[in-house]
Write a structure and sequence with these properties.
Layout lengths: L2 E6 L9 H9 L4 H9 L3 E3 L2 E2 L11 E6 L15 E5 L3 E6 L16 H8 L23 E7 L2 H12 L4 E9 L6 E5 L2 E3 L7 E3 L7 E9 L3 E8 L6 H8 L24 E9 L6 E5 L4 H11 L1
Parallel strand pairs: 7-14
Antiparallel strand pairs: 1-4, 2-3, 2-4, 5-6, 6-7, 8-13, 8-14, 9-12, 10-11, 12-13, 14-15
Length: 303
């Protein structure tokens, strides 16, 4: 049975693209998923079919029909997975760096989802067969705390919290250069790079993105930061730090600098995650230490 949703366009979002409006409003759908639904005629504006680029107007009603989630057919794999917390609604894991979160073209196996299918009994089906339980993501080479939904009600609750920016997401990052200010806020819209489609970039027509940072330690040529995400755009911290001209150390995509000895990927770690439990409403907060490579580089800087 399909799930139907009706969305009233408010004055504050008038002029937004249809696909962006639906993706932001529904929360559990990615923009590419929304675009697919639009092509299939599952999204209508005042009962009329429109293109993904259509600019919505205040007062219009956008109806979205999401097909029932397909059964999961992915292969469960016995991949080591550190489970920090688990109950009937959520599971919190410490994702290692180098692990892709969910299968996609060219990468159907050896992902976090394959590991979850082995270690966890139930996962929500809202995101379909390729992303069961996945509410938010970390880049392949970003380590740290993630929450996964075990049922659809939990998934919707967590997605709403992400949309409302009430989930606490803090990261540790080592960046190039010495940042003089003890703290700061970066408010710069992020979208697909105009020159390299593999990259994101700060662009005028991008989606609003805000990152707050605090200097924890300064070294000779490097700075250790705590970064708090107020939005969750793709590669947000990596793009914002490059925008500040202090790219993340080891980030091969957003800096051409050669990585220091012993650094094999970006030194970016999701250290703290806090959210309201989908069932009880109680606030839960979890943390994890950076991986060995991250800590070893810090030790070398300190000595």
């Amino acid at each position: 049975m399909n799930h139907k949703t009706s969305l009233l366009v408010g004055e504050d979002v008038e002029g937004e693209r249809l696909d962006a409006f639906v993706a932001d409003s529904v929360g559990s759908l990615s923009r590419s998923q929304v675009q697919k639904l639009i092509v299939e005629g599952q999204v209508r504006v005042d009962s009329e079919m429109r293109k993904a680029s259509y600019k919505v107007r205040a007062g219009e009603v956008v109806s979205v029909e999401v097909p029932e989630a397909l059964p999961v057919r992915l292969q469960a794999e016995d991949i080591p997975l550190q489970i920090i917390y688990q109950d009937n609604d959520v599971v919190v894991v410490n994702k290692p760096k180098g692990l892709v979160v969910h299968p996609a073209h060219g990468n159907w196996e050896h992902t976090l989802v394959n590991a979850l299918l082995y270690h966890v009994k139930d996962l929500s089906g809202i995101n379909g067969e390729l992303r069961p339980g996945i509410v938010h993501r970390l880049d392949k080479d970003t380590s740290g705390v993630m929450v996964v939904a075990k049922n659809d009600a939990a998934h919707r609750s967590l997605a709403e919290q992400i949309k409302a920016h009430t989930i606490l997401r803090q990261y540790l990052a080592v960046v190039y250069g010495v940042i003089k200010e003890n703290q700061g806020s970066i408010e710069a819209p992020i979208g697909r790079s105009k020159t390299d489609r593999k990259k994101m970039a700060v662009v005028a027509d991008g989606r609003a993105a805000t990152s707050q940072y605090q200097v924890l330690e300064r070294f000779d040529g490097y700075t250790l930061l705590k970064v708090t995400l107020l939005t969750g755009r793709t590669h947000q911290i990596r793009v914002h730090m490059q925008y500040l001209k202090h790219p993340v150390v080891g980030d091969a995509l957003y800096t051409s600098r050669q990585s220091p000895a012993g650094v094999t990927s970006q030194l970016l770690h999701a250290s703290v995650l806090g959210f309201n439990h989908p069932a009880s409403g109680a606030y839960l907060e979890f943390s994890s230490d950076p991986p060995a490579e991250f800590q070893q580089f810090l030790s070398r800087l300190r000595t």
